[in-house]
Amino acid sequence: MADLVTPWPWALVIAQGFLCAALAPWLVGWVRLIKARLQNRRGPSVWQAYRDLYKLFAKEARVAHTASPLFRLAPYLVFAATWLAAAIVPLVVVNLPTAAIADMIVLVGLLALARVFLALAGMDVGTAFGGQGASREMLIAALAEPALLVAIFTLAMTAHSTNLASVIDYQLAADIIVRPSFLFALGGLLLLAIAETGRIPVDNPSTHLELTMVHEAMILEYSGRHLALMEWAAQIKLLLYGALIANLFVPWGIATDLSVTGLTLGLVAIVVKLALLGAALAIAETVLAKMRLFRVPDYLNLALLLALLGLLIHVILEVGT
Amino acid sequence: MTALLTVLLAPLAGAVALALLRAPQAAGWLNIATSAVSFGASAVLAWQIAGTDEIIGFGLRVDAFNVYLVVLTTFVGLTTAVFSRPYMLHVCAQGRVGPGRLRLYHAMYQVFLFTMLLALTTDNLGVLWVAVEGATLATVLLVSLYRTPEAIEAAWKYFILCGVGIALALFGTVLVYYTAQHVLADPTAGLTWSALLTVADRLHPDVMALAFVFLLVGYGTKVGLVPMHQWLPDAHSEGPTPVSAVLSGLLLNVALYAVVRLKMLVDGSLAATDNPHLAGQLLMGFGLVSFLVAVLFLHRQRDIKRLFSYSSIEHMGLMTFAFGVGGPLATFGALLHMLVHSLTKSAIFITVGHATHLAGTQSIDHIRGLIRTQPAIGWSLLIGVAAIAGFPPFGIFTSEFLLLTATMQAQPWFAGVLLTGLAIAFAGLFRHLHPMVYGPAPEGQHRVPANMLPVVIHLGLVLWLGLAIPDFLARWLDQAATLITGVPLL
Amino acid sequence: MLAQVPILQQWLLLLAAFVLFSSFVLLAQARLVSAIHAFAWQGGLVAAVTLVVALAEQSSHLYFSALLTLVLKALLIPWMLHRLTRRLRIERETESLRRPALAIMAAVALVIFSYWLVLPMVEQDLTFTRNLVAISLAVVLIGLLMMVLRQQAVAQVLGFMSIENGLFLAAVSATGGMPLIVELGVAFDVLVAMVLFGIFFFQIRDSIDSLDVDRLNRLTETPEEGP
To answer: Where do the TM regions start and end (chain B) (predicted)?
Structure first.
């Protein structure tokens, strides 16, 4: 572990963190572009998301006069927690120093922290929409988080560790074999990722329809740099889930050492994987219709079922064979 | 061998012929003729067995245990066919069933007999399963023959419950086959009962215990053990009376036979473990619960056929308990009880069929004064119920006496429970019986054409068995008990 | 040949897992036609399991049973059910469970229960076989649960048939298939049962004007006296 204290890996940690933040708007832009093409529109350029963020940062932040200090603080906390969570997930290279201190449970905890502040901020101003969005968000969270943990446990039980880097190492070391439990966990995680990042069919990020919106309702009162931070945090969350799914289930290509070729390869691999996942998401969003909120518990129950089945099948079928 | 094949093939050929025959009058006679051929062949078979112990071939196996059930099945099949010919013509004349459905009835009657004879004689546990399931399939259409909403409900319940139960039995069979694969030199023989018996002590005890639970629940559903008995009163009360007679008299026996055969394997497998009597204990538990529940339910019945179907559950519970107690005496008693219960219960159902035609209803409250209107029916019912309640000098008294003696030896406490139960059952039966048989006859109640010959023969046999069990039968049952328990009684 | 077996076993596990999943889909599926499709998929998966076992053991009679299962469980019975629902005009019928989440959790509990139940088999043999027996027992029990929870006659029949699928899976995976005569007998029984179920659907509809078997409740322990 001697090399962990050398400055070079730490520099990489920071670089990876910034890469996360920098790639996040690109991923959102990419999804929008593919979606537009699928709908026979030309669509905005991939870089439009960056321009939007830049525009928002440049604008003045207005705050409602009923708002408490929490309202001002929340965007920073939400952004920081989400960013930290994203920095934990191995993106380009595995076995960074952060891997030793952060595992899956911490990841889930950080995301929960961000969500709590997001919901509190939504309720803070006291508008109807904010409260409504917060309550819906909590409904989804209450159902999604157990499922997320169960799905993660499936992986953790296979790799005998809740450490993300260890799981990826285990996956890389094992032969390519068919693991039914992983398939079910993957299915569960995909459904959860869609619910957690507020995509169709659970939420629609591009409308402000009071009947259906969840995430947009909570940040309705924000403007300027506060809104920019909130939006950016949401984009990072999408990237986080993408990277998590891509690197946990298809880790091949990720850098295992700190050589330049390895890192370059890792960067290319993750960009390709994210691009593919983003395209798949765009296709799914085009094909599927937004479901009614009352149906969301059914949807999340399906995710929980898949995750549970993954766990059971791991115990029944895979232990000992 | 020829006799054995005749026993099996006569009903099958009869079923095909009856399915094609369009004359209802002739169908009844053909039904009787087929059953008679089968019965004759089974008598020859029994005579052969007396000389050679067992006959094996074509995947079939006949020994002392099943040959007496084969004879019983063909005999009750014959007498019920004799009863059903005029009875079904009468039903047909009433317009409750058309000629088409009558044809279905006759064909399915023979298919049912075939499946039961196959279940009794086969040496293969898989074929046993197929045959018992086949018996369900054959009778389910018979139960819904009248197409009343109640009949359809009863048939659906019967179909679903027995279908599911029997599915669990198949799972148990698969488990047996699975564990046999590791023991037998020829793994494809893993379902052959006689091959399994020779290696029973090497079958994996845990797997066999698990398998037996599934098999007991599965075949126990067909035996009518509580709590899987729900189908039985419905199916008996809504089906045509001849079907009730063969269901109660034969099908329950066949299912119990399957359970006992499998218990023999499990006992062999568990002999060396901590709990060698697990199968027996399970049987005792299920049997006792069925017995007690049925005894209490006897009091609450308002439908005469339901009343006697609960009595069937009671007696099946008693036999299951006795097989569970084990030992040559209890087993001998249980075997005898199977025989006399079949004879008595089918006689009772035949009488009840006439009584319901006489009164025009199955409601106990509306059947009155049988003995005044038609003494033959009234007396038959009275004697039949006296026999089934365990009065001396009928055969059921003998077998119950043997059962109680054996229980007293093995489990004295249970003997008291059994005696109390029998007393309650007696009260339950007679409290309903008395007004039906005596009581004033309602206005305008007429005599009906009744064929009491089968009843007389059955009850006569039961009386004979009560007075003196013939030597050949005693040896026969003793052989069977020896086969099951390994210890001779006589 | 031996080198291939582990790969085949992996496929076997995967297919078994999907059979279990299809059981859950069948349990929770509200639309009748979709449930029939789920059942057909389950039959196809069981046939695929049989085929894989046949490949692994090079057993010619298993090839035959794979074909038999495919034709019977994946094609013939779903087709019959489809035709029946069309003729009964209930293709569009839906019936959601009263508490779907609870039903699913009960089914999960059944999976765990069946695993616990077959644990004794671990001493005797490959854990591999025990695993598949646990899965098939779970399929059987979930089919049972479905028959308990569903009121619709066709859905109950689907539960019944999925029990048969579970039994067949057990026979194939644990023992390499029952003797041919038994398998044919079972298949014949299943087919006859299906035909009888079809007849019963019409009888039930004629008698209570619906296929909701909860309304078959005329027979009780002490029927009330008629007027």
So the answer is: 64-83, 104-121, 127-146, 158-178, 207-228, 240-259, 279-298, 318-340, 376-398, 410-430, 451-469
Alpha carbon distance A245, C49 (integer Å): 29
Structural domains in chain A (count): 1
Q: Is B124 left (phi over 0), alpha (psi -120 to 50) or beta?
A: beta
* pLDDT tens-place string over residues B170-215: 999 998 998 888 888 777 788 899 889 988 888 888 889 999 999 9
Nearest CA in chain B to C187: B130
**A12 is written with which tokens?**
């990489």
Element (H, E) at A87: helix A69-88
Please tell me whether residue B487 adopts helix, strand or coil conformation: coil
Q: How far apart are CA A95 and CA A83, in angstroms?
A: 19
| Amino acid found at B488 | P
CB contact at 8 A, A289 and A273: no
Instruction: Write out the residue range of the structural domain in which residue A35 sits.
Output: 2-319
Chain C residue numbers with beta carbons less than 8 Å from the beta carbon of B59 are 181
Q: How far is C177 from chain B (nearest CA, A)?
A: 9
Q: Over the stretch A13-27, which tens digit does the pLDDT of each residue have?
A: 888 889 999 999 999
CA dist., res. C17 & res. C138, Å (int): 11
End-to-end CA distance of chain B: 29
* Chains C+B touching (3+ CB pairs under 8 Å): yes
CA distances from A164 to A192, A249, B48, B472 (A): 18, 11, 77, 80
pLDDT in tens, B371-408: 888 889 999 999 999 999 988 889 999 999 999 999 99
| CB-CB neighbors (< 8 A) of C211 in chain B | none
- The beta-carbon neighbor of A312 closest among C10, C11, C108 is C108
Cis omega (within 30 of 0) on the bond before A201? yes
Q: In this structure, what token pair is assigned to residue B28?
A: 């009844």
The reply to whether omega before B393 is within 30° of 0 (cis) is: yes
Per-residue pLDDT tens digits for A37-66: 999 988 888 899 999 999 999 998 888 888
Q: Is the peptide bond before B442 cis (omega within 30 degrees of 0)?
A: no
Radius of gyration of chain A (CA): 20
For chains B and C, CB pairs below 8 A equal 145
By three-state DSSP, how is residue B182 classified? coil
CA-nearest residue to C189 within chain B is: B134
Are chains B and A in touch, 3+ Cβ pairs below 8 Å? no
Domain boundaries, chain B: 277-490
- A309 CB neighbours in chain C (<8 A) are 17, 20-21, 24, 108
Listed residue (C17, C66, C78, C62) closest to C175, CA to CA: C62
Asked if the Cβ–Cβ distance from A317 to C24 is below 8 Å, we say no
Residue among B226, B225, B244, B242 at smallest CA distance from B234:
B244
Measured between beta carbons, which residues in chain A are less than 8 angstroms from residue C142?
Answer: none
| The predicted structure's pLDDT at residue A6 | 59
CB crowding B200-239: b at 16 or more within 10 Å, else e? beebbbbbbbbbbbbbbbbbbbbbbbbebbbbbbbbbbbb
More confident residue, B144 or C123: B144
pLDDT digits (tens, 9 = 90+) for B71-108: 999 999 999 999 999 888 888 888 888 888 899 999 99
How many C-beta atoms lie closer than 10 Å to residue A39's C-beta?
10
Asked if B160 contacts C156 with a C-beta cutoff of 8 angstroms, the reply is: yes
DSSP for B206-230, written as a single string: HHHHHHHHHHHHHHHHHHT-TTS-T
pLDDT for B343: 94
Nearest to B3 by CA among B38, B32, B35: B38
Q: Which residue has the higher pLDDT, B187 or A32?
A: A32
Number of inter-chain CB pairs under 8 A, A vs C? 56
